[in-house]
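Design a sequence for this backbone.
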């Protein structure tokens, strides 16, 4: 289809109709209502990640109110985000939402959701505000080229052409956008997957899907990466917060290993001697109990019985355990070695590490250091976080910083 040669003139063109794009547009319009703003979205689906986040509830941010603590959840971008977080933090986002009719709540694990438990509260808020503030939104309009004439940007989309003083890329992990950005001198850090689960085929896990333990310790062998937290057994292997955190921090080395590596699982986060002492005490005090019937150390009964079965201790009483049996049981509890053969991602909530090189962005304004008038926010930048609302908070914060800079020019 031929692109119309008649350019529409705007103060700001935002590329990407997701979380960062909408929030930046609203911020600019609230600060300076006279500016003409348009959002260009390549698909027909606005705010897609917002809709599906947190199982449709929208994990909008995290209950962390100290910038120095918050940056620790970002494997890439922790240093650069410290200053921006001092300007717009999780509590600021919660307050902003409350001021615009969306009350939120902090759950026990720190994740923040709308009280409605529905992402539609956020989606309706953003779309309603964009209409009220006169922000134009055009769907099915991927940007195909970007050129500069004097101090103006010339933008072509699939159907129309635009002229703008400023352009903000809020396109997430869009390869097409990265290619356009690269043409204007920016280096793109090669994207690789982050936030994925581990595919494992091991007899210790077979048919135990759905079982979780609250505080396991998982170490990626032949590396310095280890972490603790809730661990979930799934149809395909292991998931849960501890696995997702490790996948984020070790994203690049696991990609280099082609997702074939070994891990050690300590199911109870206790050292060998502490776990051994619990079994010895049970042997003394409950020696007549069958090992398979009395699970220890808080392990789920089905998981405990699987360990007992693998060690051929099903018919044994605690009093009859040999020293070698105890050692084997403790080893399995505190140091189960399994091989990971691949990964699984939730495609709709896919997160990558990689993107526009952070060194080429001024984090006081989110403007390009290489080309004036280009701004960036959200996952288009080489910034990513662990699960829990942190990726959204980076989007809100960087969008806020960019919006302030653009609106006050």
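Sequence:
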């Amino acid at each position: 289809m031929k692109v119309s040669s008649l350019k529409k003139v705007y103060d700001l063109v935002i590329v990407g109709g997701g979380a960062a794009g909408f929030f930046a547009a609203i911020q600019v319009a609230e600060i300076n209502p006279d500016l003409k703003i348009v959002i260009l979205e390549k698909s027909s689906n606005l705010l897609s990640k917002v809709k599906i986040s947190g199982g449709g509830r929208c994990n909008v941010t995290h209950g962390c109110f100290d910038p120095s603590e918050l940056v620790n959840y970002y494997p890439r971008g922790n240093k650069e985000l410290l200053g921006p977080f001092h300007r717009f933090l999780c509590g600021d986002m919660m307050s902003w939402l409350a001021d615009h009719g969306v009350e939120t709540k902090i759950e026990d694990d720190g994740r923040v959701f709308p009280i409605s438990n529905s992402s539609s509260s956020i989606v309706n808020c953003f779309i309603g505000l964009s209409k009220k503030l006169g922000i134009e939104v055009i769907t099915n309009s991927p940007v195909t080229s970007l050129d500069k004439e004097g101090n103006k940007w010339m933008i072509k989309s699939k159907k129309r052409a635009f002229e703008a003083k400023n352009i903000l890329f809020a396109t997430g992990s869009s390869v097409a956008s990265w290619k356009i950005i690269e043409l204007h001198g920016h280096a793109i850090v090669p994207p690789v997957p982050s936030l994925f689960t581990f595919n494992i085929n091991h007899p210790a896990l077979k048919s135990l899907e759905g079982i979780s333990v609250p505080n396991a310790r998982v170490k990626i062998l032949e590396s310095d990466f280890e972490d603790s937290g809730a661990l979930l057994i799934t149809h395909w292997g292991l998931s849960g917060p501890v696995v997702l955190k490790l996948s984020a921090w070790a994203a690049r080395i696991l990609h280099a290993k082609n997702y074939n590596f070994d891990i050690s699982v300590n199911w109870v986060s206790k050292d060998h001697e502490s776990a051994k002492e619990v079994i010895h005490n049970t042997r003394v005090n409950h020696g007549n109990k069958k090992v398979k019937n009395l699970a220890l150390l808080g392990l789920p009964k089905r998981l405990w019985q699987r360990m007992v079965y693998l060690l051929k201790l099903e018919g044994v009483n605690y009093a009859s355990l040999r020293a070698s049996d105890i050692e084997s049981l403790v080893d399995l509890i505190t140091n189960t070695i399994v091989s990971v053969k691949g990964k699984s991602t939730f495609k709709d909530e896919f997160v990558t590490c990689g993107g526009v090189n952070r060194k080429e962005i001024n984090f006081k304004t989110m403007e390009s250091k290489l080309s004036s008038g280009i701004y960036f926010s959200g996952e288009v930048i080489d910034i990513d976080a662990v699960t829990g609302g942190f990726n959204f908070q980076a989007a809100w914060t960087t969008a806020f910083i960019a919006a302030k800079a653009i609106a006050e020019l």
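The radius of gyration is 25 Å.
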